[in-house]
Amino acid sequence: MFECLILGDSTGVGTATALVAQYAIRCDVIAAERATAAQILAWRKPAKRYGASILAIGSNDSPGAKLADNLFKIRTSITTRRAIWLLPYSRQVASLVNKVAVAFGDESIDLGRFATNDHIHPQHYGDVARALLK
User: Please, which domain of life does this record's source organism belong to (predicted)?
Assistant: First the structure.
């Protein structure tokens, strides 16, 4: 069976909900509203290998070396064949997240390409779900 993980903040929660609603795709979801990278780092991760992982981290963080360090540690804690990072709307944070993605040879989808009302969440998570499945 194909195992997938969605790890992160409220953008991960919204993405997981859209994937189930539109495509009946169910992943392990370890995500919470307003979660920061430091909080996510402290969470216990499942000890299994995933076929794909969606990492939605950084929307609630300020840019800086500590965030980059936490993102790197989180990525090393996940065993996955394919990782896809959702780059936050904040361009400074998106740049840090993208640097970690590139360092691991991971993929990324920039949330900045999706309409938003609050510069944190996409207006329509279905658009994000479709982009993930292309």
Answer: Bacteria
- Side chain identity at 134, as an amino acid letter? K
Sign of torsion, CA 26 30 34 38?
A: negative
- Domain segments of the chain: what residues? 4-132
CATH of segment(s) 4-132: 3.40.50.1110
Please report how the helices 10-23 and 125-132 are oriented relative to each other, as an axis angle in degrees rounded to 10: 70
Record the pTM.
0.96
SS (H, E, C) 27-68: CEEEECCCCCHHHHHHCCCCCCCEEEEEEECCCCCCCCHHHH
Angstrom CA distances, 53 to 50, 78, 116, 132, stand at 7, 8, 24, 11
Distance separating alpha carbons of residues 28 and 45, to the nearest angstrom? 10
> Cα–Cα distances in Å, from 14 out to 54, 60, 125?
12, 15, 6
Cα angle 30, 93, 91; round to 5? 125
Site of tokens 């299994």: 48
Count of Cβ atoms closer than 10 Å to residue 38 Cβ: 15
